[in-house]
């Protein structure tokens, strides 16, 4: 399988909006709200700026050159949880699920983070999101904490140290 990552292009915003216009995809993401094209256009712009600044972002995942979703690393931006830590995340259109794509893309992202000497990343996953928890575990992340989002949703914090402790 050919899985490739790129900094999302302006056109990728439309592809993401189409792929994620699906309540099943959004079921365990934040409030579960489906977002429109304008929202993804602003989201992609933020990822482009982040990539420029840090070398990391939520990258577009391409499978046989078709946009399948995103996987990447960004700062944790919520007012609760692991403030100041970098978060790894993944989201694919439903037809791309179950083929090992998120795990393969996640490995590439972690390799980049190691090259950039990122000390540690966390994944914040809805406690019922079995597929996402499986990806986190396959990438070597381990459970660190059980939290509750302000909305009341149970969230598991998984994490991994990427650089040797000094
Ligand atoms: C989470 C997500 C990115 C996984 O993508 P994927 O490419 O299908 O993941 P992979 O194929 O690499 O790995 C999925 C693993 O979960 C397992 N899995 C999938 N559904 C499962 C379920 N309902 N129960 C238990 N395990 C499950 C698979 O068996 C696989 O593990 P295995 O390789 O050990 O068999 C995808 O399901 C998705 O986009 N979900 C919607 C968005 C989302 O929830 N993102 C995460 C927010 S924290």
Automatic annotation (TrEMBL):
Xref: InterPro entries: Acyl_CoA_acyltransferase (IPR016181), GNAT_dom (IPR000182), N-acetyltransferase (IPR051531)
Name this polypeptide is given: Protein N-acetyltransferase, RimJ/RimL family
Keyword Ligase attached: no
Stored PANTHER family: GNAT FAMILY, PUTATIVE (AFU_ORTHOLOGUE AFUA_3G00765)-RELATED-RELATED, N-ACETYLTRANSFERASE DOMAIN-CONTAINING PROTEIN
Example GO molecular function: acyltransferase activity, transferring groups other than amino-acyl groups
N-acetyltransferase domain boundaries: 3-163
Keywords on record: Transferase
Name of a matching Pfam family: Acetyltransf_3
